Amino acid sequence: MIDLKKLQKEIYQNKIDKNFNVKDVDLEFDLTRGELDEAQEAHQQKRSDLREELADVAIYLLGLAEILKVDLEREIVEKVSKNKKRRYKKINREQVDVDKQNIK
Ligand SMILES: [Mg+2]
Fold it and tell me: Do residue 84 and residue 54 come from a single domain?
């Protein structure tokens, strides 16, 4: 299994080694969004670099997590578990979180 914690530290170190930004958090959010746009464009244009663009999204996200001192692996595992327990009900073609909306 992949060690995301190690990978996120490796990505951060690469940014340091190559003199990329690790201080301007808003810039990193923008760059991460930009990679998502590139992936969407690759998908829409049926380009072969879609997989690489998706990887860029993950790389930027992991780098951002390390800059913000967030253990993204732990957060993902916790959130996936939380999402599995959520109960939804379809109301007017919309998936509504039963527990959040207090619906029976
Ligand atoms: Mg890219």
Answer: no
